[in-house]
Amino acid sequence: MNSLIKLDRSLDALEQDLLESWQTVTQATYQFLTLLQEFDLRQGWREWGPADCADWLNLRCGISRGAAVEKLRVANALPGLPQIS
Q1: How far is 64 from 54, CA to CA, in rounded Å?
Q2: 3-class secondary structure, 3
Q3: What is the spatial distance between Cα 65 and Cα 55, in angstroms, rounded to a whole number?
């Protein structure tokens, strides 16, 4: 059995843990995307030799090309979405 599974935990506690975990994930995702937007803007990926930042994400982070393109799309859209920030 997975050591993270606690069958004696109440469902209310489990729900609270889920909500807190999701908040952590979304905060980390936002931080990743803002860093990615700056990295792309500053062309930090160039020194590694890939054609673009999506290729760098694939090479260095193991993110598929399609997912990398989508992450870059969202990262570069954030400055125009102040309510998300």
Answers
A1: 9
A2: coil
A3: 7
Helix and strand numbers, DSSP H then E, in the chain: 3, 0
Contacts of 56 (CB under 8 A, 6+ apart): 44, 45, 48, 50
Contacts of 55 (CB under 8 A, 6+ apart): 45, 65, 68
- The per-residue pLDDT for range 43-79, each reduced to its tens digit, is 999 998 999 999 999 999 999 999 999 999 999 999 9
For the full predicted model, state whether its pTM sits above 0.85.
Answer: no
C-alpha to C-alpha distance for 19 and 71, rounded to whole angstroms: 23
Residue 15 has pLDDT above 80, yes or no: yes
Rounded distance between C-alpha atoms, residue 74 and residue 40, angstroms: 12
